[in-house]
Amino acid sequence: MSPRTPQQFENIRTEKKQIIMDAALEVFAQKSYHGASISQIAKVAGVSKGLMYNYFKNKEALISELLIVQFNRIFDSHKININNIDDHELVLFIEKSFSLLDENPEFWKLLFGLTMQTEVLEIIMPQMEKVLEPFLVGFTKYFASKGFDNPIAETQFFWGIMDGLSMDYITMGLPKEYCIQRIKDIYKID
Amino acid sequence: MSPRTPQQFENIRTEKKQIIMDAALEVFAQKSYHGASISQIAKVAGVSKGLMYNYFKNKEALISELLIVQFNRIFDSHKININNIDDHELVLFIEKSFSLLDENPEFWKLLFGLTMQTEVLEIIMPQMEKVLEPFLVGFTKYFASKGFDNPIAETQFFWGIMDGLSMDYITMGLPKEYCIQRIKDIYKID
Amino acid sequence: MSPRTPQQFENIRTEKKQIIMDAALEVFAQKSYHGASISQIAKVAGVSKGLMYNYFKNKEALISELLIVQFNRIFDSHKININNIDDHELVLFIEKSFSLLDENPEFWKLLFGLTMQTEVLEIIMPQMEKVLEPFLVGFTKYFASKGFDNPIAETQFFWGIMDGLSMDYITMGLPKEYCIQRIKDIYKID
Amino acid sequence: MSPRTPQQFENIRTEKKQIIMDAALEVFAQKSYHGASISQIAKVAGVSKGLMYNYFKNKEALISELLIVQFNRIFDSHKININNIDDHELVLFIEKSFSLLDENPEFWKLLFGLTMQTEVLEIIMPQMEKVLEPFLVGFTKYFASKGFDNPIAETQFFWGIMDGLSMDYITMGLPKEYCIQRIKDIYKID
DNA sequence: GATGAATGAGAGTTCATTCAT
DNA sequence: CATGAATGAACTCTCATTCAT
Lengths: 190, 190, 190, 190
Description:
- By secondary structure, chain A is an all-alpha fold.
- The first copy, chain A, contains ten helices and no strands.
């Protein structure tokens, strides 16, 4: 009978928002941005279409917030010392990357799917770049220390390899251990 | 003014169809499958909406036929001797792969974009697999001959690398020559 | 902390209701009936959406009650002796009319805006007519006493003039003194 | 069997557009801008909702085009010599004004209803002002020639009177002849 | 072969209203 | 008395598809 406290409302919002974002990730990953509808997401989340707009201003804000939250969560979980990468840290990074694919394949499917859609991607580009930048700088330093003549190009090359392996791992299931070993070979680690 | 022969009609059909497919590729690549509309494609092709359905049963048939035609054209253009790949042929394959990206970036953007959308992709999956199969077999033979313990896994690894470099090359412009050299290094070619 | 008496509750109700109605008037005047939303009004009033329905059965009841209250308030403030209008009282009426426009332009904007929307207007028509009737009767008597052959028609004519001047005064700012003087001219007063 | 000519398409468009605009005028007049829905208008016009957007970019464009067309049509039909108004022409203007109300009450209902809604009105304000300007200038000259000390104010006063009488004429049916005569009295014509 | 008017389903979005607390 | 989460209907608008010509 007594009215809910602000704290109670806050809790409801937090939980419900999470439920909606989980549903959105699932549906967006399956159908990509334009192919997914708010109705479908609402149905998966078990809420009414109208409620979606109580939590997110519009479809764009939904995917945007979703991507940013996931993106931060994932790159925060890389515990490597970005400013001082050595062989050991590189291996950790690679292993962690693969295990992140296992943990959250939906997100990666979505992200790789969006990579080709400039229009949608540019919504979160600034945020993404901010998060990625330190990694790229760290890797460049690492490759320089390994004696690469063109450490920037090598970073791009390494990143490209990781992208491709990640993508194919999700869609077709590459042999994870084999791939990790091969990368170690390439960089003469162990 | 003179009545057209059946052959002439056939030619007109073939040419118009090509015009429409070119327009479709352009628009699909830009906006992805669900984001592109038949109207837009018709406008780019310079034909009426109605005519689109004279040549293609529906939107799905349009993208399907488009992808298959392009896919065949592209893999046909790999002139390597698939059944007997050697170091030299591998290098040719890699170089040709990059030059195909330059020739037809639209198509690759579209294809990579669709890779994550099961729903759309499975339309052309069977056809794609039929075309890819011989390549995978050929590479497996090659890697076996190079002494790899697990040539199937190595083929997947190689394919993954190529996918990633291709994707990043299109979207962000990797240094092509550097990447090619690095692959040669990896396989100790030259 | 001490329990509130029924009288205190009643006072709270009355005050809150007034706050809501003030907010409603503001928003309705700006956006018209259909263009205004309960949420907006609640926000302006500084109360929750839910509370709105504690005080008013629904949106229609809100505007209806609002209009009636304002309407009564305004016509009550005409202190003229309705049953015995003379030249002096007419001038007072006209001057008071203009000053009411200045005091509460929001209300008049709303009222004139609704005048053309039968659907909304008929909600308060009966009440309005009850309030207006005595004025019309009074003016008719006055115009009859002034020697007009068709005092009813003259009342309508006078009323129409006042409507038009009021409307244009609110929307475009006519020169008030000039208009008042011109009406005095027309009726040969002073 | 032969395809329609561009002329035939043109004719279809012109006729259908007129049907839709007639329906729109009817519904907008009854319910005002925000209260009227595209669905309702489509139903009255006897077309599908979708077709509405083949003819008008959106709701705003519909009312805008509608108002401008009607506005021009109406003010074009005033055949008075705007640059040289005399007593006779003034009477013609007044009589014509009333007969226009009879001919097209829907439009006037809509226009007066919108007068209070800045937001909607400003869509067509520039166009309206362009049409009205010459009339206001003409009347000002006329009142100056009649010896009014403040002919601009008199024009505003006259316009206000006409607005009010028009509005009340539409909504409540003033006695037309009586009103016309009274205006003649005011300006000492005949 | 070719056109574009026309449809209808469904997209994104808003909002009056209800209700558990 | 008071809150805001939740709903569902209705809104504006889009688009694949059909069809008369």
